[in-house]
Amino acid sequence: MPPRIYLDNAATSWPKPPEVVEAVRKYMTECGAPAGRSAYASAQQVERDVADARRAVARLLRADDPRQVIFTANGTDSLNLALHGLLRGGDHVVTTVLEHNSVLRPLHALQSSGVEVEHVRCGANTIVDPADIRSAIRPNTKLIALVHASNVTGSVQPFEEVYEIARKHDVPVLLDAAQSLGHLPIEVAGRSGLLVAAPGHKALGGPLGVGILYASPDVPLAPTRQGGTGTKSQEPQQPDSWPDRFESGNHNVPAILGLAAGIRFADQHPHELQSLHAKLVAGLDTVAGISIYGSPDERVGVVSFNVAGWQAQEVAAMLDAAHAIEARAGYLCAPLVHPLLGSEAGGVVRLSLGRFNTADQVNLAVAALTEIAASSASF
Ligand SMILES: Cc1ncc(COP(=O)(O)O)c(C=O)c1O
Fold it and tell me: How far apart are CA 256 and CA 268, in angstroms?
C-alpha cells in the first residue's frame, strides 16, 4: 500500500506541528494539574499557561482584551454558545444557505422557541451578495450569522461588506471562521457587534477538543450552562465576569496548551496554500469527467468536485482503498447549498489541503482521480 496521504484538513488538520505534540506530551507527563482551581505550584503554573494561551488567541485576532476570548470544546460548541446565548423568542436571524449544521441545527432548534430564521441564497459561485443580506434585515433582526469560508466549496464570503451593513442597522454579526481562522487574517480590534467562532484544531494546528468564541464587549451574551469556575465559589449564581461566566467545569488544558503552541508555530512558520491549491485545481481541471464546484478561494485549500459516472462516496472509497488518499465525501454537514450546486444526489468529494501537504501528494491525488474518472468512462 502506498503511504497515507491526508487530504481532510478541513475536518481537522493533520499532522499537528511537533511543537503542538510536545506541548501536549509535556503537560500530560510532567504536570497534569487543573487550571484555575488550586493554589499549589503546578496548578498556578497551569493557570498562567492557560492565560498565556488566551493572550495568544487574542493577539491572533488583534483583540483588545483577552477576557473576551472564551475557550470552548470545538467550533460547534462556540457557535451554540453564540446562538443560544444571544437569541430569544421573537428575534429574527439572517443567515445563509452556505452554513454548516453547527449553525443550521441550533437555529432550527431555536425556531421552536419562536426565533425566526431567514436563509439568504447564493449564486452558483457560492458567494452571497451583501445586498441580499441587507434586504433580509427586519426591525426584529438580532443577528446575522455568516460563514467566513464555505466548508463545501472554499469560497470566501464578503464579511467586511456584511459587517458594514450590520453596523448601519445595529445588528451583531456572528462570523463562523471554522475554515478561515489560521488561513485568513481576522481583526476584531475596535469593532463592536462582532462574534467570531472557530475551532482550535483546524488551520490553527491545535489538538481536537478545543474551540474559541470571541465576543466584543457590547454583545449581550448570556451563559448557556452553569457550574464551577473556581471563582466566587460561595455564591449560588454564575459569576458575571468574563470569561468565567461561560467557562464552567475543568478546561481541556492539553488541547488549550496545544492550541497555543499551534498559534506560535504558525507565527514562526508562515505558510500559504495558494500554489498547492492552484496546482490541485489546475490538475483536476484537465481530467475529463471532473467538475469542480463554486469559486474556491486559493487561500483556504478546499476543493470540491464530482466525477462523472461515480457517486461522491464511491470516489472517496476508491481513493482510500486503492491509493491511501484520505478525502471526505457527502453533504459535508452543509445540506442547503447542494441543491444550488446540483449535488443533492450524494453530495461532493472534498480534498482539503493543509500546511504539511506537498506538491508530490497533489500530483498523486490528480493521478488517482484521473484513473478513477477513466475507469468510469470505460464501462
Ligand atoms: C464551516 C464550519 N463551521 C463549523 C464547523 C464545526 O467545527 P467543529 O468540527 O470544531 O465542531 C465546521 C467543521 O467542519 C465547519 O466546517
Answer: 19
Length reported for the chain: 379
pLDDT digits (tens, 9 = 90+) for 67-116: 999 999 999 999 999 999 999 999 999 999 999 999 999 999 999 999 99
Parallel, antiparallel, or unpaired: how do β-strands 116-120 and 92-96 relate? parallel
Q: How many Å apart are CA 59 and CA 45, to the nearest integer?
A: 21
Enumerate domains of the chain plus CATH numbers: 5-15+272-377 (3.90.1150.10), 18-268 (3.40.640.10)
Ligand 1 atom nearest the C-alpha of 11 is: 14
Residue 176 CB–ligand 1 contact under 6 Å:
yes
Which atom of ligand 1 is nearest to 201's Cα?
10
Residue 155 near ligand 1, beta carbon < 6 Å: no
Is the beta carbon of 178 within 6 A of some atom in ligand 1? yes
Phi first, then psi, for residue 27 (nearest 5°) are -65, -45
Top mutation candidate among 9, 99, 100 for ligand 1, by most atoms within 8 Å of CB? 100
Decide whether any atom of ligand 1 lies within 6 Å of the 76 Cβ: yes
